[in-house]
Amino acid sequence: MLARMMLQAASRFTRNRRIGFAGAGRCGLSFIACTIKIGLLVLVCAGVPQVFAAEAVVTIHQLKGLTHEQALEGRAVRLKGVVLCCDPGWNQLYVCDGNETGYFNPHDFQTQPEKGQSVEIIGTTAGGNAALTNATLTVLGRGTIPAAKRLRLSQLGNDWCEWIETTGRVLLTETSRGRLALLLQDESQNCLVYVMGQPATNDLKQLLDCKVRIRGINASKTVAGRLDSAAVFVPGIEEITILEPAGAKRSQVPVVSIGSLLNRELGAWTNGLVHLNGLIVSYQPGQSLVVKDPTGILRAKVIQLTQIQADERVDVWGFLELSRDEIFLNNAYFEVVQPPPQNTASAGSPAPSPRTTSPPAVLTQVSDILKLGREEAARHLPVHLRGVITYADPEWRNGFIQDKSGAIYVDLDQKDVRSGQWVELTGHTSAGGFAPEVLSSAIQILGSTNLPAPAKVDLEDLVNGHLDAHWVEMEGVIRRARRTEEQYGHLNLNLMTPKGQFKVIIPGVGDQPSPANLIDALVSVQGACTSELNVRRQLSGITLHAPSLDQVRILEPPPADPFAMEATRIDAVATFDPDRLAGRRVKVNGVVTLRIPGQGFILQDASGGMRVLTRQTNEIHMGDLMEVLGFPVIGDFSPYLEEGAFRRTGTGALPVPTKTTAEQILLHGTNDS
Q1: CB of 302 within 8 A of CB of 289?
Q2: d(CA 164, CA 159)
Q3: pLDDT (tens digit, 9 = 90+) per residue, 103-154?
Q4: Sign of the CA dihedral with 509 first, then 512, 515, and 516 last
């Protein structure tokens, strides 16, 4: 199964819906979840004149002016306008009445209009976020798209939610969110552009490095009246016009080594595109990528969400930037280097036998669906199932149903569906990412029932994917528990077992803070199992989808005061200790000998040094004495700590440096850190 404010705002983006970022499926991203909340605010913006009379609402201006109390009175709405942008998959519908533009939820209407159509919207206000009840949308014919207001990228803090036109140079193009995304730049201002609708099949790289003009809805974010992040929703590729073609193609930019790049003298070349090739060291989707080659290591800032794994080889393009703390690639873009095609004629295993019987006219057992090949499942065969909903997350359109024959992922958008309901489901098949899935589901709730008895498993039991979508139970030590803006309302847990890591996603936590008492706890988790895939559709990770925190049972709580635990010598970290459970947090003490901006620091005690990766933002200085908590990870030469938590206890002298040679460092690795 494949697995992010402005970087992740969509419902389901691809047919490989395998991780619950806010999406219409497993490969969705939490971008729309935030964007909808922002978009709806167009109807209650501050500074808009209020409507005091009880007359019917006939303009966007009046609709924006309603107070919450007035909207609760059930005001009649009857307005006409032209559709500027519509993409139900991303919950986007913008209508202009000739003077102002307003956002509407396309799922409130049975009719899905197209850009440029003249429509009439009728309904009744219902309070929060100016939601409409008994809403209808009628297409009246073709309308006239209004002239777009021309703005520079730096001016996008104004005219929010309005139809605008702007220009910039395309720094990257990518489709990991299920929509074409462009990064534009003009006068040092960046802007994310999302093109609504499924990406075209033609080569979208033709836009790279071109200067373009776009028209769309201004969805930028402002903080304290100033532009914080610029974003535009473009209704279609036809609203992008190339003004100046690109120069040389990126594939023609020669690869340079990281070592030679960092050792060059500064000059005009730093304004040009840089091309690296190396292996992934670490990756935070939508944020940064750390890549290494035989000569060095370098961080690149990215917006992509492409699913990749450590040690995969990538090509990276970006612009070298120097800050006070580090040298990095900015506005970077990467591609996984595909392995050479295998010679299937000489492969040792025979090709799978073709299916000799046709599937049933209507598939009524989950097992029948799972027997389908990818081509068969892609034919959208009808499905009629009865079973228990083990997991339901309508906000991200993720669901799982299990019957006596098996379990399967369901594209879910019904708000009344809950875990533990006995249901009747109709829909059609899809090839999915790892296994077949059910799309366009309609669910009739028949009652409530118990969740199935979980299969108690470990990671080895799941590596072949035969328990994909099943209700399972696993144990592990929680290393990270966080709720982020990019995954609004969802809690993400990272757990470690003696055989590797897995993830847990829990919906419905809203704005509640992440539970601190879970870090370093040994827990048992029940949830629907999903399989993460790499770009070659190979299983690369496991995620459990748990309906609530009720499915997380603490077996061994963490220490009440973790800093009170006994410190471990750095040279003893990740060595055998019969008194310590594998995967639990350790404590080390030492002095900071190096800051690693954006990552952490190096700590050293009398026995050795160690790299500490941390998310804390406290100021760190060389010579600081630290108490550090973290989880051991095996590195290339020596262990390091991740998810570090630290507190400063004073200052101290730096240790006496060890005399060594480059040959000794590379040959033995004993002086790492």
Answers
A1: yes
A2: 8
A3: 998 888 888 899 999 999 999 987 655 578 889 999 999 999 999 999 999 9
A4: positive
- C-beta separation of 111 from 138 below 8 A: yes
The one-letter amino acid at 280: I
Tokens representing residue 463 in the block: 């590596």
Cβ-based neighbour number of residue 274 at 10 Å:
21
Average pLDDT value for residue range 506-515:
74
pLDDT reported for residue 431: 82
SS3 content of the chain, % helix, strand, coil (to 5): 15, 45, 40
Helices (H), 344-451: 366-370, 374-377
The answer to whether 550 touches 527, Cβ cutoff 8 Å, is no
Is residue 320 a contact partner of residue 331, using CB atoms and an 8 Å limit? Answer: no
CA–CA distance, 472 with 470 (Å, rounded to integer):
6
What is the DSSP code string of 424-473?
EEEEEEE--SSS-EEEEEEEEEEEE-PPPPPEE--HHHHTT-TTTT-EEE
Do 236 and 197 touch, CB atoms closer than 8 A?
A: yes
DSSP per-residue string spanning 543-608? EEE-SSGGGEEEEEPPPSSGGGSPP--GGGTTS--TTS-TT--EEEEEEEEEEETTTEEEEEETTE
**What does the pLDDT look like over 357-410, one tens digit per residue?**
677 889 999 999 998 988 888 888 999 999 999 999 988 888 999 999 999 999
- In angstroms, rounded to a whole number, what is the distance separating the alpha carbons of residues 309 and 582? 23
110 phi and psi angles, rounded to 5 deg: -75, -35
Between the two ends of the chain, the Cα-to-Cα distance in Å is 36
Rg of the chain, C-alpha, whole Å: 27
Taking the C-alpha atoms of residue 177 and residue 344, their distance in angstroms, rounded to an integer, is: 32
**Residue 575 burial (10 A CB sphere; 0-12, 13-18, 19+):** exposed
**Contact present, 417 and 423 (Cβ < 8 Å):** yes
**Residue 114, beta-bridge partner list:** none
Contact 548, 527 (CB under 8 A): no
The answer to pTM > 0.85 is: no
Closest CA to 590 of 569, 600, 605, 602: 605
